[in-house]
Amino acid sequence: MKPAPFEYRRPGTLAEAVEALAGEPNAKVLAGGQSLVPLLSMRLAAPALLVDINEIPGLDTIEIEDGGVRVGALARHAAVLASDDVRRVQPLVPMALSHVAHATIRNRGTTVGSLVHADAAAEMPVVLTLLGGSLEVEGPAGRRTIPAAELFVGPLESSVGHDEVAVSAYFPGLAPGAGVAFEEIARRHGDYALVGAAALVEGESVRVGYLSVSDVPSVVDLTGVADADLGEAALAQLEPMDDIHATAAYRAQLVRVLTGRVVRSARDFAEGAR
Amino acid sequence: MSEELHDVRLTVNGTTHDVRVPARRLLSDALRHDLGLTGTHVGCEHGVCGACTILVDGAPMRSCLMFAVSAAGHEITTVEGLTNPDGSLGPVQQAFAECHGLQCGFCTPGFLTTITAGLRDNPCPTHEEARDMIAGNLCRCTGYQNIVKAVERAAEIAASGEETAS
């Protein structure tokens, strides 16, 4: 299990990173590498060039901006999880991050990297989608902002161009009186979830995002649905998939159970915040 | 095509080493094969088992999920660097010996590095915190009961060592 040969560049600035990517269509950006390196070692991916952004200064920032949280491309999961500012402004972020792999992986892996990796079994893509956040990327044409709704286009596929570097992600903050909750079912803590769910309750509005249910993060609107019907109403808008980890029927059952649970928890959260 | 090689200066357990490696050389392989530091063990090679865990600038990380070229400029600590300055066993190592925290020893280097950093951040873990500290490391023979005991014992040894020292 060794990666195939690749060319390696470690630029000192974002501009150099963009330039390096422009010269090679089969390039990948290396940030934390906690998802990318296994793919390389198993030779599921064999890019010709790796552009290591770890030494670019100023990308490891975690800032409060317009009432939300902006996380830089080199902010490690562990740093985001430990941030009191993040916990105060958008508690759903740390709730979900505590389920991202194990502490050792979170020490190296980056939150933005997890978004660009676009794994529908991962926690952060669902959180970004449910909250209506966005990703900021830099390419040869300059910077652009990709809304979460346009970011995740297929299994392990994001709409970030091959010549673009993700610079930061923006998670909108929690509105006063709103509530959030996150739960997932995995065989062991830290494993990929068989199904996970995140809820956002704002006044009458009830929305729930799911991971590991289909091949992209899915968000359903459950506003106005009676509590007893939440699971079935969610399933009417989802098509749980079959794979070696779980059958579609089992995933449907987990959706039924988790939907009610996260909506109740999010309502309790909102009550407690009042 | 001959593969491009990179000159990398690695700082491991306080000693600098100059190696010439291809970019694809995993840090775990550089430590074991290029530097001969075979204390770091390689189990699954995709970040699941935890045997290859080392400390990078003090934080536990998987050496099989990093490239040696990316480690330049960072302080690396392997299991070889966990002994006391006089060569005696460090507190976590001593606790593993006392509590029978190892049997075959394959997973042990990863546990020792992880717990060393864990106790530095949280010197008096509760039983639950001790279990959580090792949740990312797999052991297939000793079982976790004695390893959890070793975490708690290591905390005691470290605390008493500090008292003696002060």
UniProtKB/TrEMBL annotation, chain A:
EC top class named in words: oxidoreductase
SMART domains documented for this protein: CO_deh_flav_C
InterPro entries: CO_DH_flav_C (IPR005107), CO_DH_flav_C_dom_sf (IPR036683), Diverse_Substr_Oxidored (IPR051312), FAD-bd_PCMH (IPR016166), FAD-bd_PCMH-like_sf (IPR036318), FAD-bd_PCMH_sub1 (IPR016167), FAD-bd_PCMH_sub2 (IPR016169), Mopterin_DH_FAD-bd (IPR002346)
Listed transmembrane segments: none
Keywords, comma-separated and alphabetical: FAD, Flavoprotein, Oxidoreductase
GO molecular function, a single term: FAD binding
Name the record gives this protein: Carbon-monoxide dehydrogenase medium subunit
Domain FAD-binding PCMH-type, residue spans: 1-176
EC number(s) from the headed UniProt entry: 1.2.7.4
From TrEMBL, chain B:
PROSITE patterns: 2FE2S_FER_1, 2FE2S_FER_2
Highest taxon of source: Bacteria
Gene3D superfamilies recorded: 3.10.20.30, [2Fe-2S]-binding domain (1.10.150.120)
UniProt enzyme class: oxidoreductase
Residues covered by the 2Fe-2S ferredoxin-type domain: 6-82
Keyword Iron among record annotations: yes
Any one GO molecular-function label of the UniProt entry: 2 iron, 2 sulfur cluster binding
Pathway given in the UniProt record: Alkaloid degradation; nicotine degradation
InterPro entries tied to this protein: 2Fe-2S-bd, 2Fe-2S-bd_dom_sf, 2Fe-2S_ferredoxin-like_sf, 2Fe-2S_ferredoxin-type, 2Fe2S_fd_BS, Beta-grasp_dom_sf, Diverse_Oxidoreductases
Enzyme Commission designation: 1.2.7.4
Transmembrane segments: none
Keywords: 2Fe-2S, Iron, Iron-sulfur, Metal-binding, Oxidoreductase
Protein name in UniProt: Carbon-monoxide dehydrogenase small subunit
Organismal lineage: Bacteria, Bacillati, Actinomycetota, Actinomycetes, Propionibacteriales
